Amino acid sequence: MAATEVQHKGQLVADDWGGGSFPFHIGHKKLGMWLFIVSDALTFSAMLIAYSYARLSSEQWATPFAFSPSILFSTVMTLCLLASSFTMVMAVAASARRDRKKARRWIGATMFGGLLFLGLHLYEWMHLINDYGLKPFELPRAWLERWPNASPLFGASFFAITGLHMFHVLTGVLYLGAVAMTIKRRTHEDVEISGLYWHFVDLVWMFVFPLIYLLSVDFNPEQMPH
Amino acid sequence: MSARFGGLRGLAGKQDVILNAICLLFAVVFLMLAAANFTWSGDFLTIDSLFVTTVFALLALVFLANPLLWAHERGYIRSFLAAEDELTAKKDAEPVHFEGSVKLFGAVLFGLLVLTVVEVALAYIEVGLVLMLTILIGLSVIKAGLIMAYFMHLKFERQSLVMALIPALVICICLLFVFFPDGFRLLNTRPPSQPSAPAGATQPTH
Prior knowledge:
The complex is a heterodimer. Chain A is built from eight helices and two strands, in the order H-H-H-E-H-H-H-H-H-E. By secondary structure, chain A is mainly alpha-helical.
């Protein structure tokens, strides 16, 4: 498909700004994925800005994540996602060499990274829900003693933003699984598009991790009442 | 002169010239209004005055865009993108559009890891919240740029794709910042809460 594009390049592609039938010189599927990514990026930025708004307009905000173990735990999650992004690049590179077998193997590694992230994240959620008693619109009692005027919206913002991101990771793993299963019938562009989506999920985490976790570090964890 | 502008043969060219002249006229009018606002308003550095100036300047820019593009197309303005055009043309000739090597992607991954470690280190040494937020956002934007440019292959795509996607996204995100002044207002207009609620007090759920 890419070869025919280049063959007809003379008629279909004008100069860099002239338009032609391929104004962006990418396939319609890839353009569609890019447009979806842009709109999805706006969804996530709207949620992160809503969280910043809630935090800005509150007298106090709970900052409950101790460096060890909470921050280190989420750092490991970040490393999982970064590593899976790298294996996805390797999958796209293998697919560009028409090496489908290797591409499938690298996609499998990517899915493994994604599943590891999901598992760790779910473990953290369960820890916050069961051990602390964090609810969407209610802070745990120990946190309220520590930060008496803290906004109860902590749970809502945390669960909404990380939950939406987790949903994207889950969708990405399923999507990659579908691509890996049917890789013999897939063009290089199909693999590349699934890679675009996966990198986007990684990209979003690069903003969620500092804003949600690193800005809520508990610098004096020994003061937390038990 | 009469040969160029007379008769039906030159109609298309004439049309362009007339439309561009009208656009140029509007642009000049708006530029003059922006300049006039500078003298009319007693105190220039007020929100209203700056807003009006910005709106006039933007309108002038909008009307200027077409004549400038037309002149650029005709070669009246020398293309400063000429060198880059050649580069892209050479790039587009390759059959499978994939660039980058394991070495390059490995280097990008290493950069991302280093930036992440710096971010996490900030959570270990205590700096102020505002400074920390600034550094974190700055580093995150760099990381996002790295991921988009190399992992998402945007650096090797046509420039028209980048220009179609990224500026619109950045502007839309910046427009969302309009809520932040309201956040401060909400904080300052709220009645002060009771001085430190007693320990174990039940907080009403909303």
